[in-house]
Amino acid sequence: MSAPDSKIWFITGASRGFGRLWTEAALERGDRVAATARDRATLESLTERFGDAILPLTLDVTDRNAVSRAVEDAVERFGRIDVVVNNAGYGLFGMVEEATEAELREQMETNFFGTVWVTQSVLPVLRAQRSGRILQVTSEGGVRAYPGIGAYHASKWAVEGLSDSLAQEVASFGIHVTAVEPGPYATEFAGSTSLRTTDPHPDYAGVREATAKEWVLGDPEATAEAIFTIVDAENPPRRIVLGHTLPEIEEIYAERLRVWQEWAPITKAAFGTRGVPGAA
To answer: What is the domain count for the chain?
Structure first.
């Protein structure tokens, strides 16, 4: 039996990686979880362990109608939703020129539009409650960029922008929005379904070689307590980086600010000698 103050979670992409880990951790602390996966069979072991505390749901987040039904099922079972974790997604790796239209659209359909459909479906529930937490799992790749991951970055930067606006729109309803930005972790992200690659163009072989990187991977188990701290906080952050990459991100933003300031005279001159009130 769950504690009186336990939370109800709605977690997408719960079959593996962070989604699986956070689902299990939430259940272990006495919370209840509506957990979604493309293949509900991947959640059977959790159902065996936690019984009615978990509601396993089959869901492809790109199916807007299915998303709405999943949210309805969660509310019907648990009566409310306290924490929404938009975690479902995958990475498309490859040079921008290499990505096909189909690959680009599918990346955005899952990582961006899937997040939008879940967010839009849960908002009426959270607004009615006048409470709720939405965790948008973006990535450090939502605030910085590496060569060879442009499509993935585009999807995550899009979620970051959407979420920043959303946070301001729903604050008066008691809803908090946090973009969770993990660095590299030793999850199954590099597995067959979580990572896809473009057809490599030979002209970029030198770029690949020159920008190859040895990733220092964090322990994903260490993220669970961080997630609990965020969802339990009275005033959670709008953005939070998980892992060891914050110093690198700080350097990137410092360099952006330096360049903006260096070019400030051009910036100001581009305004003209007289502003037009109300003009775009």
So the answer is: 1
